[in-house]
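Re: beginner question about structure tokens

> Can someone show what the tokenized structure looks like for a real chain? I only ever see the sequence side.

Sure, here's an example I had lying around. Input first:
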Amino acid sequence: MGRGLLTWSLCLGALLVLYFGGLVNPLVYLVAGVLAPLPVILAGWRLGERAAILVALTAVMCIFLLKPGLEIILNNLAFGNLLLMGVLISCLRYRGLSPERAIIYTLMALNLVALLFILGQAHWSRVSLQALLGQKGTELVDTLHRVLGGMGREASGVVAPGAAQSQMEFWVQRLLPGLVIVNGGLTVWLNVVLSRQVAYLLGWGQEEPPLYYWSAPEWLIFVVLAAGFLLIVPVAGVRVFSLNLLMVMGLCYFFQGMAVVAALFHRWGLPRLLRLLGYLLIFLNPFVFLIITLGLMDLWLDFRRLQQPGKA
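And the corresponding structure tokens:
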């Protein structure tokens, strides 16, 4: 009981450190925007799904008590979304779902919640959905400028070299649905991967098989081809839809490309430090696009030899 309480308290403490540190430091803010679900997942991993839910609810209460009211709730919706992500992953894992299914179901649930919230906000505010998405896009660009500006960097040069803020707003507003899905998918995937590794390093069970069996359905390639053809349709709305769809498909094949890389690292027997450095390099340009290409090529070249399970 004592160790369980200590573990639970450490998970809650880490979560609050991420939140309050993000209020004063832009770098911690970026880290919290990715790793906030991790303490919730680890609490559930060690102590069960109820502990994960309790960690998330306690963190919410601590934040709310800072300044009780509707304003603090609205200002922390993104952080609440991350806590919900951690709870969903923890509950799905507790029920024995595979990591791949946990990622997909969590992402679907979060996107459904986001869609319902956006529709409800548009109805409540009596504004069109397009206008609301435009507003959200502008807020996102402003947040990016504020955070990177606090780190001494210019957002335009980091995200799109040579692009003015007006150009960034134009594209973010139109690609916001795809950006939300891609960002959520990467965050869910990263927290699932890290939680498995951290739990193993802490001695909370045996090491689970790496996620190198991830494979997108073969028919998905036809969706990619259809989205590519839609880009040549001379209708602005169709082109925007196709770009968003291509971003989501790119996420699917990024996961598959990462699975190929994990399989190669495992086959070569690389030490953990070299694997970590390799994974970090992957998230730098232009390696992200190379990984997506690798995932697409795996459909035909079968780098992991999935057709031969005994050799995979």
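Each token stands for a local structural state, so reading them left to right follows the chain. Residues 209-312 form one domain.
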